[in-house]
Write a structure and sequence with these properties.
Layout (H helix, E strand, L loop, with lengths): L1 H16 L7 H11 L14 H13 L3 H25 L4 H12 L2 H6 L6 H15 L6 H21 L1 H15 L5 H26 L2 H16 L13 H19 L9 H21 L3 H21 L12 H12 L5 H15 L3 H4 L8 H12 L4 E3 L4 H7 L4 E3 L5 H12 L4 E3 L3 E2 L2 E2 L1 E7 L10 E7 L8
Parallel strand pairs: 1-2, 1-3
Antiparallel strand pairs: 3-7, 4-5, 6-7
Helix pairs in contact: 1-4, 2-3, 2-19, 3-4, 3-8, 4-5, 4-7, 5-15, 7-8, 7-9, 8-9, 8-10, 9-14, 10-11, 12-13, 13-14, 13-15
Length: 475
Amino acid sequence: MTAASLFLGLAALFAFTRSHWLDDWDSVNFAFGLDDFDVTKHWPHPPGFPVYIAAGKLVYRVIADHAAALTLVSALSGGAVASMFYVLERRHSDWPIALCATLIMALSPLFWLQSGLALTDMFGMVFVVAFLLVEGTTTTTPRGALARRVACGLIAGLSLGARPHITLLIVLYWCFRASGHVDERHVLSAVLAFAAGIAAWLIPACLATGGAQIYWTATVGQFEWRFGRPGVSVLGTPITGQYLFARALALIGSLGQAFAPMHLTTSHIARRAALGLLIVVPYVVFAWRGASKSIARPYLIASAVYLLMLFILLPVRHLRYFLPLSLVVGWSVSGYLALFHRPMVRALALAALAAVTVLPSFFLVGGLGKVPPPVAGLAWVKANHPAAMLYSDSLRRHADFYWPEGETVSEPKTEADCDQFRKSLASGRPVLSTNSKLCGIDGTKLVEFKRDARIHDKHHTIPIFEYGKSAGHAG
């Protein structure tokens, strides 16, 4: 009853405070995928997140609004994750502790914000907590143990089609929990169930794309492009000790920011990393010592490997990548409260923890109800310069959705591109960009749209510059 009430209450809260727009350019790709799933067009980008798109399509049938449907999927997912976490925590704690742990986790800034954005992160967490719940189920018969392995394998396989990043976390956790007592027949049944879970979304995705070869080529191409980009992946950057150290500091700083009650400045990377450690370490220590340590400890170890994957392959600045560690916040509550024995002291300690963990959310979630900078920027261009040519890498995908009648092109990168850019200037047509300097020519800033980067760090600042006879000079 409590779990159901948590789901209904939190899902309603998340739905009420969720965004009404497509905040991220990936959100735009997901929106196009609801109408026409095609990874070759990046609708959405490979591997296509077909399980997430399927969930979005179901909601989209009821709510004929792309952004509303996708953000509602996140809101419902947030409620589901919280209610399942409560059931998981009840196996180890009394209901008051389990309830407090669940609410503190669910109302923390990272969790609440991700429950209101049109992205796959919170939907992926449904599979993480569902796996923890099923894997920890006690069975007394061989048939029951087989059913548990099959269910775990299916959940893990489906998670790969929901959000591939978290499949690594699930499989690692499974391996750490199973270490020391592995039967070859058990492994085979789990692997077969995992393969069946993958096939359930991979076959429809291949058919929708035009065949397995096309899907495979598009997916491999996406990963080659991503892993080869300097600054995004270690694999695409000349590796030096200084670079690795700076990237490690950036990762720690971003991890700390994901759970910090205040903004951590990026102007001093070492100080940001030190503050990040001070913020994260207590959560880890209390979770390690808490009532749910049989689950939290292997999960923390698996999370360390997940962070290593993030360090090597993905941009370390995006806070949403740390959402799987929000469970650690919930697990830390029992370990923290165990320090206090008197009811009054424990109540004060709980209030202090809630103030640090939950209170900042109320200063941030309101930002979800405001037009995000990419959408606001395009609306301004559409209202003030409808005939303009817009050169923008950061707005190009949003423009496909929010300004399809306009002309938005990539920023010039070659001399041929610059020749075309100069022709655009000579045509007398208004020329705008989100970049302050193109082809050696400075632009004049007309307007800037900003919001707190903790709400969503990608596209949190969108400036608009004008180019032309009165807009700048040759650099």
